[in-house]
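The records we work with from here on pair a chain with its fold. These numbers are not coordinates but entries in a learned vocabulary of local backbone shapes. To see the layout at work, look at the sequence and tokens printed below.
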Amino acid sequence: MAEAIHGHEVIDMIVQSKKAYTRDTLRADIVGRFGADARFYTCAAENLTADELITFLEARGKFRDAGTGFTIDQEQVCNH
């Protein structure tokens, strides 16, 4: 199994892209960058699929509605 990727890498990808995402477009960009079989971890969860990571980040309030999708809510991102 490949090394797990920290969720912060996905958050950084979202911030750098300056895009408003839907769940589908975010999933596509995650798969495009990290691969379909990538697994992710955070401070509170591990072995997450891309879909599970999106759900986790959403539940933690990391996303901000951008009208046509969502972006990262910078105020909700931990910096460790």
Remarks:
- The first strand starts at residue 5 and ends at 6.
- The radius of gyration is 12 Å.
- Residues 5-71 form one domain.
- The chain has a mean pLDDT of 87.
